[in-house]
Amino acid sequence: MNRMTKWLLLALFSFNAMAQNLKSPEYIQLSTQNVYDVEIIVFAYNTALPNVQTYVNKPIFDTSLAYQLDFNDEDLPLVKKADAQENENQYTIDIEAKDEGVLALAWFEHDASQFQLNNLWEKLLTNPSTTPLLHRAWRQPETLFESPEFVNIKAVNRIVDNIITENETYPDGTLQGQVALSKGRYMHFTNQINLFRTTNTADDVVVGDTKNIIFSLTERKQVKSGELHYFDNPWFGALVKITQFKGEQTHE
Questions:
Q1: Fewer Cβ in 10 A, N or C end of the chain?
Q2: What are the contacts of 52-57 at 24+ separation with CB within 8 A?
Q3: 140, containing H or E segment
Q4: Both ends of the chain: CA-CA distance in Å?
Q5: Given pLDDT bands bounded at 50, 70 and 90, which one contains residue 162?
Q6: 37 falls in which pLDDT band (50, 70, 90)?
């Protein structure tokens, strides 16, 4: 099998996997589940890389079951009443009342106009010690702590559209992984993200082979709505804000 055929097959498999895991926006019964906005920034530290001869790459996370989210392209109402008539579009939602008739739209991507952490992104851009890699936000319900539902994470314009394996070399700063917001007694956020950095394996950088050094962020901790949470290791980190969706008033 030549290299071109291999890449075509990998791209086709990746497309099918994404199609299978594309999570369409859906309405959540707010009397049984809360809905949250999740915003995440992932950045790399501009520190010296470890010795490629002695560093052992971290395992690559399996993200085959993680959701691929889409935008609310159909412009579905963000909240609605289960018994509302099709043309009824003027009412006030009281989420705190836990009315069984209140539904909120979830599992969709936010565009940049909904970001709350733009100031932090700008600070990371101008900080000589950091390189920001990814900034995303979406709306989702809380999922079960015992079986969390993951959202796929990958760096925009940095990741090659194929299956991530240890047998290929990926561009410096590539991110691939998954994150989950779950709740048991308390709410938790889980990171399972790989960062791919590139380094040269020979003294002569002109003829030396380029190789990936693979890091991982695996921290999970308790989080609270409305607070900024920080996850990191010596090589890269994430800033995460969870905000409970409180509803809105819709009108003509």
A1: C
A2: 52/199, 52/201, 52/211, 52/213, 55/213, 57/166, 57/212, 57/213, 57/214
A3: strand 130-141
A4: 60
A5: low
A6: very high
